[in-house]
Amino acid sequence: MSRADKIFVSMCKDIITTGYSSVGENVRPRWEDGSPAHTIKKFGVVNRYDLADEFPIMTLRPTNLQTAIDEIIWIWIKKSNDVKDLNSKIWDAWTDEKGTIGKAYGYQLGRIIDFPEGKMDQVDWLLQTLKNSQSSRRMVTNIFNHDDLKEMGLQPCAWSVTLNVTGSKLNMILNQRSQDILVANNWNVCQYAVLLIMFAQVSGLQAGELVHIIADAHIYDRHIPLVEELIEREQYEAPLLKINTEVKDFYQFKVDDFKLLNYQAGKQIKHIPVAV
Asked: What is the largest CA-CA distance in the chain?
């Protein structure tokens, strides 16, 4: 069975059984009817995915990998904050009058910084370090720029990536300040697994572990019945991710360079209420 399914089920059971409920507190998020969107949460959840074993996509319900990859390319390769550069509408709710999400995500990765190695953006700095100094323990990105928070459509949830080479394997830590587990968990896991694969391939390395650290892992109150139904579903074998191995330039990766083979998953959950 899929390892990603087992991790998801274990995490959700722990949150629902032993998590902390915000009921009775004054919370910011609201449901569409104006009522408070309470959560049950766990602090400091850590999940580990070994990409040498399998690609960590859930089979309990389908994850739209193509759209997820399109977003990660938008952020990390296009370094864009303009929603017209996306092939989906997932950022429309946070778009300003200029059609951007402000100084968030791709904008931060594309900012030129005066590194000790020279002036470049954070992505180019990672690529240069992987090329010239793979033993470095300083390959850390940060897009939670406090100076620009007031100009962001949404303050970054996934805010920091750390790369580390162990032998011939490239490993990654993804730090996330907050995560809506039902809506975003496997979406983010798949995205950053693909990002790790991209960095590894252009650096002549093998993709190793993705370690996902979630500071506030929460399930919204109206999502609990959906999660409880989901985690009781049948689980299937993880599919195979086929990658275009001809791509050697990080900036040449495209959505079509990644294809899932033999992906079997349960039915999609429809009408998930969204808290804003």
From this structure: 55
Burial bucket for residue 43 (CB in 10 Å: 0-12, 13-18, 19+): exposed
Report pLDDT for 11. 98
pLDDT for the residue numbered 83: 97
Q: Give pLDDT, residue 147.
A: 97
Residue of 40, 152, 157, 181 with catalytic role = 157
pLDDT average per 10 residues of sequence, the chain (276 residues): 96 98 96 96 98 97 97 98 95 94 98 97 98 97 98 96 98 98 98 98 98 98 98 97 98 98 96 89
The CA-based dihedral angle spanning residues 133, 136, 138, 139, taken in that order and rounded to the nearest 10 degrees: 60
The tokens of 47 are what? Answer: 């999940």
Q: In terms of C-beta density within 10 A (0-12 exposed, 13-18 middle, 19 or more buried), how is residue 90 classed?
A: middle
The dihedral through the CA atoms of 102, 108, 110, 111 has a sign that is positive
What pLDDT does 274 receive? Answer: 87
**Tokens for 223?**
């999502």
Give CA–CA dist 274/276, Å, rounded: 7
CA separation for the pair 157, 215 (Å, rounded):
10
Task: Give the span between the Cα atoms of 104 and 75, in whole angstroms.
Answer: 9
- Give me the helix-helix angle, 3-18 and 181-202, nearest 10°: 140
Q: How far is the CA of 149 from the CAs of 30, 86, 144, 152, 158, in angstroms? A: 21, 22, 8, 5, 14
Q: Is 157 part of the annotated catalytic residue set?
A: yes
Under 8 Å between Cβ of 197 and 51: yes
Residue 136 to residue 165: CA distance in whole angstroms: 8
Q: What is the DSSP letter of 100?
A: B
Beta strand 240-243 pairing with 206-220: unpaired
